[in-house]
Amino acid sequence: MKKLILSVTALSACSLGAFAQGVITFNSSSGSGVISINGALDTKTDINAELLFSTTATGTFAPVAQLLLSSSNTSSDGTPGFDPSDIISAAGDITFKGTGALYERYGNSFIIPGVGSGSTAFFEVEGWTGAYNSLAAAQGSGVSAYGTSAVFSEALSAAGNPINASLTSMPNINLVSVPEPSTMAMAGVGLASMLLFRRRNK
Predict the structure, then answer these.
(1) Which residue of 47, 86, 120, 173 has the fewest CB atoms within a 10 Å radius of its CB?
(2) What residues does each domain of the chain span?
(3) What are φ and ψ of residue 116, in 5° steps?
(4) pTM score, two decimals?
């Protein structure tokens, strides 16, 4: 009977270990992911960034954490774990060692639900400039530079032992400034006026 109990306990422990949730940190400083703004590597601008995940490369992506310039928070909810409301003060986090890499300086490890340690999850990173609370708000502002990374995959680390939990495969992101439609319309009117004036002079 004791042997049976020990066997069941050992099997349960192995099963729990196999299904232990994996973690990731919001940090591309050890990988290739850097931020450019309008094509130029940026090592000084503090930006907003959001990390999103999916269990498949083409699935729906859910938020893991945000680094927001407009937030006064200095950590997530105080405990490692997945929470779409994990918002962290972003000031200074984008210029890690002057490389333009992302770096969530508080070192939070975020649990990715449904993905075990050692297994692969898929991620993308959104970035934008200015004091806006979302990529959508930045896109609607007419003044913010913004962009989204290509989808990339990472093998998750075990909770409590986040070795290689950084974003080592994150692609580079280029944030592009898109002028407001009214600005573009005014530029068009100006160009048309110049062409008309030139024709008259001929």
Answers:
(1) 120
(2) 20-201
(3) -75, 160
(4) 0.78
